[in-house]
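Here is one chain, start to finish.
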Amino acid sequence: MDNGMEAMLETYLYETNSLLDALDELLVNDEKIGDFSSDDVNEIFRSMHTIKGSSAMMEFNSLSTIAHHIEDLFFYIRDKGIESLDPEHKKELFNLMFRSGDYLRSEVQKVENGTPLSQDQEIDSFANEINAFLKKISNTQSDASEESSEQSSDSSSSASADTVAGLPHDTEAACFIRLFLDEGMGMENLYAFMITNALQEEEFVFRCYPEDVETNPDTSAEIVENGFFLAFDSQDMAAQAEDALKGQAHIRSYERLDNPSKKAASAKKTSDKAPETSAPADTAPASKPAVPAPTPKPAETKAPVTPVAAAPAKAHAPVKQSLISVNVAKLDSLLDIVGELVITESMVTSAPELNQLSRDSFDNFMKSARQLRKLTDDLQDIAMSLRMVPISGVFQKMNRIVRDMKQKLNKDVHLIIEGENTEMDKNIVDSIQDPIMHIVRNSMDHGIEETAEERIRAGKDPQGELILSATHTSSEVVISVTDDGYGMDPDKLLAKAADKGLLTKPASEYTKKEALNLIMLPGFSTNKAVTEYSGRGVGMDVVKKNIESVGGTFSIDSELGAGTTVTMRIPLTLAIMDGMKVTVGKSIFTIPIANIRQSLKVTSDQVIYDDYGNEMMELMGAFYPIIRLHRFFSLETDITNLDEGILMWVEANDHSYCIFVDQLIGEQQVVVKPFPTYLNSFDLKNYGINGCTILGDGSISIILDVFGLHSAVIDEK
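Its structure:
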């Protein structure tokens, strides 16, 4: 595939996925209300029209065909009005549209994966389902129309036109075709001329009303209100013209109308001939006088009506915002370059040759270096902001998950979404979608009680509650999924783990947190039966690994009978951060600035010991444990006395403690580099190591994970 086609495909996929995401969100919101608004009907119609056209251009037949049938369905609904559907039909329409969206999305995924699209048989099967629904609602409308016109003497298949507004008085025409153009186009008279001109080029013979559409702009208002008419002298010619109109653009609807003036003239001729061939007066039925066609009223003088949509377009055109979509791979490359620039800047400013400069030369150099650092910071901020996207896209998809599971599991659950505008790195947002979906499905499947009666007996609201929230901290986003269901029993978890041989120590020695964490072991499941959503013993361990792969942490808190909360703490970005360099022996560590509360010198007599002999430090009226890095990592150092080193008071999530190091080197912006893949088997995250960075002199510095270090040292105790 050449670059041009590849760019077109990327644009197509981006646009189509965006439209399908918007469709999903629209359907979920409207289903909660139980009805479509007219604006939403128009929005779905436009979306399907766009998908149909772009898919046809890319020659994706399955997508263009199904989108075309949905477009036809909503064209009918838009024309008749959504209020014409009864509640049962609306319910069917919601289900049909959800399945249609899923079908289109599955076809798009096939395009993304390079697999063959659905074949004609499968396409026709789904298209027939859409057509069957359209036929059902159109038959309902037809039955209603027939019932209201039972007493009408004229039962012609063509629409009656005796009372049609603006119908021309043309006694020679056998019938008319009345056309309406798309709404809000502007210059309707010129579009009408283009359509009539195209028919004339195909050698159709007809007359157009209004007659002066080409030269009279004032006819636009009449066309908007009443449409425009094509008069044909024969029914056959009109039928052929109808087929030709199907290929014309900008036509919203059209209908064929019998000419009442022609009927009236024909009836008059028959009436005039009646005395010559009439039956005897005593047996002839009384003939009614022909009703003359109503003489059209002279057109009232009106100010030209400008279509509503045309004016705002002009008014807002000068301030239209220009947007451009960029491939994420290009943003990745940009951020990599910025990262290398940060490293190079650090190398330049820490070069040993600077010590040989004179005082004035050194001052001038440092002045330029500070300016370079400012520009580098600005460039980094812009590069990072380009990658930041709201998490709302992921959260809104959970609406659909909950909606489908409510129907299949017959559970009444209310999903509450909080903090959906929280922004994160695009790569991280993509990585956490599946973990969040799995947790939501677990909560719906066996977190929430099976029936409303069971919840009532437990003293709860009959409707279950599921809360999906996201909040910002200084350097990370905290995402939590909370349900008010059964909760988890640590004793049952321990018993289940013992049966499977997963315990590594006696059950009595497990803390509550350790017992809850057992569900993250591979193959662990408390479900007795395998369902569509859970019970296979896979999932939570994968969720944990996926969260940790983007530098996040995963924790579970649960109260039996009160519900469960799953918390994910995820860094805003994986690329660049501000860090404080510290030394321990000959090793250099980097502590994220966002986690540091204070650095301080202390004396040995300020240290307090708990009942187990662990060192504690009193700060601002509270006591915090001390972690000696040289002990934890088994590093050789000459500084083991607290009087000689430095204490770093750090905080992560809800944990706060002190780290003892040899000395501070200083603050530096660092680029986070992942470890080689062969080190993944050592599970370094659980040992308080988050990654590494390259320093200005080319040496490697370990980046500490403040939360992981606390879990590895304090929690183990």
